[in-house]
Amino acid sequence: MPSNGAKQPLLPVDDALERILKGLAPSQVDESPLAAAVGRTLSRDIQSDLSLPPAPVSSMDGYAVRAEDCTGEKPQLTRVGESAAGHPWQGRLGAGEAVRIFTGAFIPANSDAVVLQEDVDASSESEGARITIHEPPHSGQFIRPAGLDVSAGDTILRKNSLLSARAISLAASAGLATLPVWRQPHIGILSTGDELVLPGETPAPGQIVSSNAIYLAAFVQASGGIPIDLGIARDRAGAMLDHVRKAPVPLDMIVTSGGASVGTHDHIVSDLQEAGSALNFWKIAMRPGKPLIHGMIDGVPLLGLPGNPVSTAVCATVFLGPAIARLSGHDYVPHQISAEITCELQPNDRRQDYLRAVLEYDVDGLPLVTPARKQDSSMVSIFANANALIIRPPFDPSIAAGDRVTVMPLAPLL
Ligand code: AMP
Ligand code: MG
Fold first, then answer.
1. What is the mean pLDDT of residues 56-83?
2. Ligand 1 atom 5: the closest Cα is on which residue?
3. Residues whose beta carbons lie less than 5 angstroms from ion ligand 2
4. Is 34 exposed, middle or buried (0-12, 13-18, 19+ CB in 10 A)?
5. Which of 83, 98, 311, 363 lies at a 20 to 30 A Cα distance from 23?
6. Predicted TM-score (pTM) of this structure
7. Closest C-alpha residue for ligand 1 atom 14
8. Is residue 257 lining ligand 1, measured as CB closer than 6 Å?
9. Ligand nearest to the CA of 194
10. Pairing of strands 143-144, 57-58
11. Tens of pLDDT along 214-255?
């Protein structure tokens, strides 16, 4: 097993991320029904099949008129029909005529304005009624022209964009029933450790319940990937390789937790070397997460996360999220804000720190952040009640209460 003593320089977080992302790209394309497309990534630009609106429509309830008929003292018109949404009036407006119209209804041919219903007196709500106009309209008033929003053939959505509910609603309006999206990456999730039992099992003395796989499966799913359970590899040489090579489907990436350090029961690095594949890096300048591993098994990238649950989760947030985004076809942009810290912090050492913290907003809406007092990476209760990470660069000087710090809010469901 290689040794990488504390004296050797540690790889900076940004360099580690760059090396993990290098070479990751989406491959095949699926055609997704709109209802299943939220969170998928478009594999090409999308053009609209339809113009929106398809024809001039009214933006108000009132009367469709010819503006030229509405001049002079108290102009009067005759109601000749009605145009409602879904029930267009088929005729052509003649001189001195008006058509009762409602929001979203097609404007009758030869009409060029809508008068608000509040701005007329109508003798009745039937055909032949006399309409007196109190506010003469200008040509074009309260009419949405055809194609105001989108013209048929316009590019409405861009290649490699992540599909939101808003984007899917636009695609539906534009006449599309399916969208071409990049295939979702399959991410193998492997736990390691002789001490682990499955959630729901009662741990015997010496055992603990495995929590990392369930976290990682939720993380992968929320990030747009498909989690593939590879089970638990026990602490013996070769176990990790056995599990990975029995994966039920081809994998785009393997994520392991635990077994990442130098102990005699840690086998991830030695198994990687056994597989004859390159160990890209091991150990980075990060807390939690120093023993992060990156390598390849049979051409599939492997991300080896440290076993402590908080280390697993923070490393997933910093490295796995961007990797799944890249494999899914889009680039992940980390959401970071600046917040006022409520307490002091000692100077940081050479590792980039990710402090579990609670982010709140004061009465003026300004963000305030408070780090948890205990930052032990085994403490899941503190992590579960945090909603943000304070990011401190290596060698950050001491911080006073009231200083601004960089904060990464945690996704509410992760
Ligand atoms: P390791 O890196 O294997 O030495 O693991 C570091 C710590 O994380 C140990 O206390 C392990 O028991 C714990 N750990 C490893 N895997 C898991 C897991 N899947 N769920 C919860 N804790 C784990
Ligand atoms: Mg272990």
1. 97
2. 307
3. 193, 258-259
4. middle
5. 311
6. 0.93
7. 307
8. yes
9. 2
10. antiparallel
11. 999 999 999 999 999 999 999 999 999 999 999 999 999 999
Question: Side-chain half-sphere of 6: how many Cα atoms within 13 Å?
Answer: 3
Q: Is 310 in the pocket of ligand 1 (CB under 6 A)?
A: no
* Ligand 1 nearest-atom number relative to CA 263: 4
User: Distance from the CA of 69 to the center of ligand 2, in angstroms?
Assistant: 85
* 24 Cα to the center of ligand 2, angstroms: 28
Locate the ligand 1 atom nearest the alpha carbon of residue 213 and give its number: 19
Strand partners, 361: 367
pLDDT for the residue 7? 61
Please report the pLDDT score of residue 331 as a whole number. Answer: 87
CB atoms under 10 Å from CB of 7, counted, come to 5
In the predicted structure, residue 303 carries a pLDDT above the cut 60: yes
Which ligand 1 atom minimizes the distance to the CA of 235? 3
Lowest mean pLDDT of 60-74, 273-287, 365-379, name the range. Answer: 273-287
387: which 2 tokens? 């909603």
Q: Is the pLDDT of residue 5 over 90?
A: no
* Mean pLDDT (whole number) for 358-377: 97
Tokens representing residue 21 in the block: 């992302």
Indicate whether residue 32 lines ligand 1 (CB < 6 A). no
Establish whether residue 235 lines the binding site of ligand 1, counting it when its CB lies within 6 angstroms of any ligand atom. Answer: no
Phi, psi of 64 (to 5 degrees): -85, 130
pLDDT at 104: 97
